[in-house]
Specification:
Blueprint lengths: L1 H33 L8 H24 L9 H28 L1
Helix pairs in contact: 1-2, 1-3, 2-3
Length: about 100
């Protein structure tokens, strides 16, 4: 039973880490797109942008409702990244030592 809980804990940590990377990739891609570094008429670029937007928008949309408008600056990815890091810290600190002590 402890092994299953440890596996679930590891998977949750991995999913949160991967989503954090996707948020960073989306932020970088949006900057590259905004400054015309990438070719906006390329179907591959548009597909990558659409996929990143579809993955991150459900998390960023509620955050954008609460953050005031700062001109052209969107800090919702930063807030989402901080929330993910906070969740990872909450999950790791009390659970990991307890699970390791149960396994050992």
């Amino acid at each position: 039973m402890v092994g299953i809980i440890l596996a679930i804990h590891t998977i949750v940590q991995l999913v949160l880490t991967l989503y954090l990377y996707v948020l960073i990739a989306n932020a970088i891609f949006s900057w590259l797109y905004a400054f015309n570094v990438v070719n906006s008429s390329s179907p591959i670029v548009n597909t990558i942008g659409r996929v990143l937007h579809q993955i991150t928008d459900p998390v960023l949309r509620p955050i954008r409702r609460f953050i005031p408008d700062l001109g052209g600056l969107d800090i919702s990815p930063i807030v989402a990244a901080l929330i993910i890091i906070f969740l990872k810290m909450i999950i790791s600190d009390p659970i990991t030592p307890a699970l390791i002590s149960l396994v050992a």
